[in-house]
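pipeline stage [seq->struct] | target=Ribosomal RNA small subunit methyltransferase A | organism=Liquorilactobacillus uvarum DSM 19971 | residues=298
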Amino acid sequence: MTNNDRPDIASPVRTRAIMETYGLNFKKSLGQNFLTDVNILKKIVDAAGVDENDDVLEIGPGIGALTEQIAKRAHNVLALELDDRLIPVLAETLEPYDNIQVVKQDVLKADLKQLLSKHFDGQHHVKVVANLPYYITSPIIIHLLETGLSFDSIVVMMQKEVAERLGAHSGTKAYGSLSIRVQYQMNVKVAFIVPKTVFVPQPKVDSAIVILSPKEILALPKDEQFFFKVVKGCFQHRRKTIWNNLQSFLGKKKVNKEKLQQMLLELDVSPKTRAENLSIDEFVQLANKIIELKIIEK
């Protein structure tokens, strides 16, 4: 049987055969749910706009279903897989493709700059395309943003609920520190919804394909890391007011309440408002003012 005659890895028949051949079961601890609809995988690659000008980083290739579809269009693919059991499986399923490198690596511990420098030539756009493990979706996205790497785009599958949080606007229940952390650097677009019925094993919820693309940061914080801490602090207790959360975050014994009141007045923010009602720009101004007015007493 030639490669052209082989059914795609993602087909239910091929997936089942691979699982049986290697005696595989699914590790809940690694968030393993394998997609068995080839058309949806092709739509993911379409959403990422992958072509021969792109080098693609994939996280968690599983048995290679999405990897295969990416490799058919991309210049090169670097796939990071944590599960030891899947390394020999991937060696077999992806053997026909000479533009794929599979590396056993935990993406959260990986030196991505070093890895990409080693496996990519630096002459092509770099994109991330992945079906992320549900249980560590947010940490992986934050890790990618913190690398300082210039990804052309990040196109990932995640739980629909998490996708809604990423793209949420101020004033909505889904809006929170994760929304701000991602939208501070990236434009967020939900490309399409993936029903739970196309996975093996079937998860309890539907998924979504999210496209993250870099954007120009207009409101710059004086101290970026402090800005992120302020955002998390203000969302620590969602039902509490900005006034209460800021005091708790800054330390009630150290905070100068008069300066805190002055700051909120200058920013035209009611002490009774909640964090979900502030925009990203307003949070940047808030963090900058805390530093400028020296609201924390030493």
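stage status: PASS
auto-comment: The longest helix spans residues 280-292. The mean pLDDT is 92.
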